[in-house]
Amino acid sequence: MVCEGNKKSYLKTQNFKIIGQNSLRGEVKISGAKNSALVLLAASLLTDEKIILDNVPLLTDIEKMGNILENLGVNLQTKNHKLIIDSTNISIKELPYELVNGLRASFFCIGALLARFGEASIPLPGGCNIGKRPINEHITGLKALGAKIIIEKEIVKAKLVGKKSRLFGANIRLNCPSVGATETLIMAASLAEGRTVIENAAREPEIQDLCHMLNKMGAKIYDSGKEKIIIDGVKKLHGCSHKVIPDRIEAGTFLIAAAATSSSITVSPVIPNHLEAVLNKLEESGSKITKKGNSISIKGNNIKAVNVKTAPFPGFPTDLQAPFMALMTIAKGKSKISETIFENRMNHVELLNQMGSSITLKNNVAYIKGVNKLKGTTLAGSDLRSSAALVIAALVSTKVSHIYGLEHLDRGYENFELKLSQLGAEITRETTKQVTSQSEYDCDNLNKKGFAEIKVA
Ligand code: UD1
Questions:
Q1: Cα 427 from Cα 421, distance rounded (Å)
Q2: What does the alpha-carbon distance between residue 306 and residue 279 come to, in Å, rounded to a whole number?
């Protein structure tokens, strides 16, 4: 099993100390969307002119993507949340496994590199702790656009067929609406010869953000945000300035935290219709929601049990399934949460049960019996969103919690503890002297139930 955190021993000694049962109050500023920023960085490889990206979140995933681009020869200048990306002098070479490992989105560079240079070589991203995460849709689609692809020693090598100098447009129907595959193929098709039609495309807001930026760069993409996307390839793309959309998953996490602690907070800036499915479930479970311009306010109250089933956008996002489950653990009544996108995204169930919840899991469906209270303890989250769920559970728990797994949280939540403490949470990042040994933390050394346990010295 892969556990990217293993290598970062310094983070293994960090945890959030959370004293629960405080209510939250105030306004929280939402950062730029991680998943948008990652793909926009990949898209910047499509041009030899400068791209200026604003509202880029300061996260370890973004740093990793930046390192990958720099390894290709991209000149990156960073100033706070602004990135100036200059891909004039890049050279095509195989990306080293150490850089790509642990950042699945790095594979999304394949479409851009192939379209601009006619070749690309990227190590297989492999599975991760939420599932196998295949890339067959990316490969099949790129082949339809005229690429020859071989996988040799875990490296995906893509090239144009014969003497062609460009990819060519094609009709592609995805078997499943994969976000990454839709993005890879949009980037590749934007520099292809002729028209590409992608059917059963993913419709996530981050894809719309990508198309918006590509169109500013001179691409001709129609109907992004719909199931059928049409792209008329152009010969060249140019530079542009673009502001990353707000992170709907970060916003959703804070709203769920407010609901769980019966608090009143406002998240902004957000694009409220990106969160429609989540807001509906929050309202159904007893919260009062008010949308005003680019902000959403929530007043949490009497949490009721509601059923949730994850689905591609505009359905309930899989990335908020774990946080929402933390909310349901203390709801009145019984709820059912079904994960339909990833096959192994229920790691938090056992961890929440260790905090006193009553959840049984059967075939990726969690049956939750609401309890009156959770009890703080010491635990480690095993992936980004399960760690966020533990933080929410800790915020409502009696006693003190120590939540490890910050290497996951730092991938996707900018200044998480600062934002929470500004809302009134008692949360501090602690660096303990000798808390864990390698063997205690390793995901390769999981306990019988499959969860890494942390022992406090
Ligand atoms: C993106 C998001 C991630 C989110 C996910 C689903 C980024 C960087 N990450 O991941 O946060 O949880 O969308 O909303 O944007 N699949 C295949 N074959 C493929 C590709 C995917 O079978 O070639 C399957 C996957 O196994 C999974 C489902 O499709 O079951 C969805 O995956 P996908 O939408 O591709 O997720 P990512 O783009 O990797």
A1: 6
A2: 13
Amino acid at 156: V
Q: Is residue 456 part of a domain?
A: no
What is the structure's pLDDT at 2?
Answer: 23
Q: How far is CA 376 from CA 177, 210, 322, 356, 357, in A?
A: 39, 41, 18, 9, 11
Instruction: Identify whether 39 is part of a domain.
Output: yes
- The span from the first CA to the last CA of the chain, in angstroms, equals 26
Asked if residue 198 and residue 142 are part of one domain, the reply reads yes
**Domain check: are 224 and 337 in the same one?**
no
pLDDT for the residue 153: 86
Instruction: Check if 290 has its Cβ closer than 6 Å to any atom of ligand 1.
Output: no
Asked if 137 contacts 181 with a C-beta cutoff of 8 angstroms, the reply is: yes
Give the pLDDT confidence score for residue 18 in this predicted structure: 98
* Per-residue burial over 88-111, b = 16 or more CB atoms within 10 Å of its CB, e = otherwise: eebeeeebeeebbbbbbbbbbbbb
Cα 371 to middle of ligand 1, angstroms: 33
Dihedral (CA of 101, 113, 245, 198) sign: negative
Q: If you average pLDDT over every residue of the chain, what do you get?
A: 91
Residues 208 and 288 in one domain: no
Ligand 1 in contact with 105 (CB < 6 A)?
A: yes
Q: Is there a single domain that holds both residue 74 and residue 94?
A: yes
Which of the residues in the chain have pLDDT under 70?
A: 1-12, 126-128, 131, 433-457
- Domain membership of residue 126 (yes or no) is yes
Q: Which atom of ligand 1 is nearest to the CA of 319?
A: 12
Which among 383, 391, 346 is positioned nearest to 365, based on CA atoms?
Answer: 346
Q: Give a yes or no: residue 423 inside a domain.
A: yes
Determine the Cα–Cα distance for residues 436 and 154; give it in Å rounded to an integer: 32
Q: Residue 309 has which token pair?
A: 């089933």
Q: How far apart are CA 430 and CA 272, in angstroms?
A: 34
Q: What is the pLDDT of residues 302-337, one digit of tens each?
A: 999 999 999 999 999 999 999 999 999 999 999 999
Ligand 1 pocket test target in 176, 245, 248, 316 with most atoms within 8 Å of CB: 176
Strands (E), 258-413: 264-268, 288-292, 295-299, 308-309, 334-338, 358-362, 365-369, 378-380, 400-404
Q: Which residue has the tokens 């949308």?
A: 291
pLDDT at 353: 98
